[in-house]
Write a structure and sequence with these properties.
This protein is an alpha+beta fold. The protein contains four helices and six strands. The chain binds methionine sulfoxide (SME). Methionine sulfoxide binds next to helix 3 and strand 6.
């Protein structure tokens, strides 16, 4: 999708989510709502969901798309890179990313956005996969960063 058109689409999704999430008071509901809306509104989103950190493990949370890996091998792959680097990771071609974990062989590009708690710790990541190489860029990084900041921390 052309960058301006994509930014416009994200702006409308963000606005809609701001309204929807006023009615939610829990993390999983926030994540489920975000995953569903993004997955169905954005082009090229083949798998859209969250992984949450629990006792040093990165475990799957709410998602849309094909069946995902439940637990991601520690310090391996794109999601763990997002946790360990504490920043958004854009991967134009997952086959060129060392240690990439392929839950579905049809994925070719990926973006991972960390979620930070009040004390600055990463408590989850948003992960989006696409079948299209080079699907994600800085427009996705900026807008998905705004969107995940709507998720409230687990109690
Ligand atoms: N590709 C991810 C694993 C999660 S799936 O894409 C849903 C990774 O390398 O961490």
């Amino acid at each position: 999708m052309e960058k301006e058109k994509k930014a416009g689409r994200y702006a409308r999704v963000l606005e809609q989510l701001e309204t929807l999430l006023l009615k939610s008071n829990n993390t999983v509901s926030d994540m489920a709502t975000i995953a569903a809306l993004l997955h169905h509104k954005m082009d090229d989103f083949f798998w859209t969901g969250f992984y949450l950190l629990h006792d040093g493990q990165l475990q799957v949370g709410p998602y849309q798309g094909s069946l995902a890996c439940i637990d991601l091998k520690k310090d391996t792959g794109v999601c763990w890179a997002g946790v360990n680097r504490r920043e958004t990771v854009v991967v134009p071609d997952v086959h060129a990313f060392p240690g990439h974990i392929a839950c579905d062989g049809r994925s070719n590009a990926e973006i991972v956005v960390p979620l930070f708690g009040k004390t600055g710790e990463v408590f989850a990541v948003l992960d989006v996969d696409s079948t299209r190489k080079n699907a994600f860029d800085e427009v996705d990084a900026v807008w998905l960063g705004k969107i995940v900041s709507l998720v409230q921390q687990p109690q």
